[in-house]
């Protein structure tokens, strides 16, 4: 399938087939990434609730590093897809080269700034005196892996934008499997403690970046990164990438802020609450990442068809992706709700922590069928270059909607407010997204009808 160019597939194949061919490898990649996150969590819980809570404290730092990677990757990817739709291949390659360089520079800056401000950042994230030593051990390797993590996200997104989803999957899966194998070895054979899990992740991200880099430069790519070095240093391109990646920055950046506030609110209810929210967050991200991956399969199609001015296929692609996602989300949410006690029993042994984890997880499962609406609405507008709408919708889930809820609900209903804040935010974000999408396609249909009418009159 990938022997055909993206342009050929977009022109000749049904949109649902192209979406699935791009989405399935991406979803599998996200599953592997989530799997090694779960493996880390599972093995770290064997070290006690303090170690589990410490890993949860570092989630804000991880989210910020991912925010940088997704900002550059998704910003460049959406540009590349639209440029390929317009048949502007040389400019698409230029954007890809600039994205790789900016990802490397931002990764090094993140590493340096993180090392300088590590302790204040962890305290701000809710680290208590007891949790701080564990959190520092884990966070150190998270920071060291920042340049590789960012480049992995950038290269993976660029490969998908070219229709090379399988090549993107190869790097992600290789790094993920390596992490899964090394984590128990470092924790229990070499007795490295919580830093062993972070070291395994560091090695996995490094290998993933190397594999993806090899695929990008030496594989059979439309954009092969072999232009002269001056192509890496066009400031205008950097600005375009960041502008188009702003929705991803909002989504992931607010995720970092939300993690800080959630931890700080949970701290007031003890280490058990922090551990429970940490486990719940990582488990729920497994489900959430499935639809992020599915949306990333849809986004290159949206960008290409928009660039090619084929609004009919764009609408078909969105409707297919939305309804298939909602159906899948309903099934996953139902299964998660029913099996929540069993799932939590693998990670949380203390009764208080398990009760908090089960209630929080179930509240999110109830809302889960609505989550694809928010994700795909955001990716639609980012893919077609409407950054303002995309940024606003990205900011809703863990920003505009979530932040007031996480401040107000605990004041009104105590711990239950911490437990249901994210679920309520997800539901409200979906409701807010619907009119944006409806209005866009309504206006698009009117323009298409008007154009057909005018073309018909000219022919007469």
Structural summary, described in words:
Its main location: membrane. It is found in: Cell membrane. By secondary structure, this protein is mainly alpha-helical. The protein has helices spanning 6-12, 15-45, 49-57, 59-85, 89-116, 118-124, 132-144, 146-161, 165-189, 194-218, 235-267, 271-307, 311-338, 340-345, 351-367, 371-383, 387-400, 402-413, 415-459. The chain has one domain (6-450). The chain contains 19 helices and no strands. α2 (15-45) runs antiparallel to α12, α3 (49-57) runs parallel beside α12 (271-307) and α12 (271-307) runs antiparallel to α13. The longest helix has 45 residues, at 415-459. It starts with 5 loop residues before the first helix and ends with a helix.
Secondary-structure map:
Blueprint: H1 6-12, H2 15-45, H3 49-57, H4 59-85, H5 89-116, H6 118-124, H7 132-144, H8 146-161, H9 165-189, H10 194-218, H11 235-267, H12 271-307, H13 311-338, H14 340-345, H15 351-367, H16 371-383, H17 387-400, H18 402-413, H19 415-459
Helix pairs in contact: 2-9, 2-10, 2-12, 3-7, 3-12, 4-5, 4-8, 4-11, 4-12, 5-8, 6-7, 7-10, 8-9, 8-10, 9-10, 11-12, 11-17, 11-18, 12-13, 12-15, 12-16, 13-15, 13-16, 15-19, 16-17, 16-19, 17-19, 18-19
């Amino acid at each position: 399938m990938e022997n055909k160019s993206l342009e050929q597939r977009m022109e000749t194949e049904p949109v649902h087939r192209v979406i699935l061919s791009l989405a399935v490898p991406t979803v599998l990649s996200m599953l592997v990434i989530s799997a090694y996150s779960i493996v880390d969590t599972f093995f770290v819980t064997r070290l006690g609730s303090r170690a589990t809570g410490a890993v949860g404290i570092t989630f804000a730092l991880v989210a910020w590093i991912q925010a940088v990677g997704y900002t550059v990757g998704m910003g460049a990817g959406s540009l590349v897809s639209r440029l390929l739709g317009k048949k502007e291949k040389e400019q698409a390659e230029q954007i890809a080269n600039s994205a790789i360089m900016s990802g490397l520079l931002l990764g090094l800056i993140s590493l340096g700034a993180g090392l300088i401000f590590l302790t204040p950042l962890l305290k701000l994230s809710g680290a208590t005196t007891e949790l701080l030593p564990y959190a520092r051990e884990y966070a150190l390797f998270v920071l060291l892996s920042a340049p590789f993590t960012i480049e992995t996200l950038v290269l993976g997104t660029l490969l998908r934008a070219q229709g090379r989803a399988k090549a993107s999957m190869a790097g992600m899966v290789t790094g993920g499997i390596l992490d899964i194998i090394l984590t128990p070895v470092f924790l229990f054979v070499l007795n490295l403690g919580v830093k062993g899990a972070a070291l395994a992740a560091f090695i996995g991200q490094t290998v993933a970046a190397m594999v993806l880099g090899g695929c990008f430069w030496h594989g059979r790519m439309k954009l092969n990164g072999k232009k002269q070095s001056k192509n890496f240093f066009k400031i205008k391109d950097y600005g375009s990438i960041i502008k188009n990646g702003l929705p991803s920055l909002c989504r992931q950046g607010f995720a970092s802020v939300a993690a800080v506030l959630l931890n700080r609110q949970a701290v007031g209810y003890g280490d058990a609450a922090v551990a429970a929210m940490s486990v719940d967050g990582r488990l729920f991200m497994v489900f959430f990442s499935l639809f992020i991956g599915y949306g990333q399969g849809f986004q290159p199609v949206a960008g290409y068809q928009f660039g090619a001015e084929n609004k009919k296929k764009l609408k078909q692609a969105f409707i297919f992706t939305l309804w298939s996602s909602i159906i899948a989300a309903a099934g996953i949410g139902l299964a998660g709700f029913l099996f929540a006690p069993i799932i939590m029993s693998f990670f949380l042994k203390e009764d208080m922590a398990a009760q908090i984890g089960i209630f929080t997880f179930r509240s999110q499962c109830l809302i889960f069928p609505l989550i694809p609406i928010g994700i795909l609405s955001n990716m639609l507008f980012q893919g077609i270059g409407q950054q303002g709408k995309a940024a606003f919708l990205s900011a809703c889930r863990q920003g505009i909607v979530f932040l007031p809820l996480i401040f107000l609900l605990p004041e009104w209903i105590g711990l239950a407010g911490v437990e249901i804040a994210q679920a309520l935010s997800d539901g409200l974000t979906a409701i807010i997204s619907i009119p944006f999408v409806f209005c866009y396609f309504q206006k698009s249909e009117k323009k298409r009808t008007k154009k057909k009418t005018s073309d018909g009159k000219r022919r007469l």
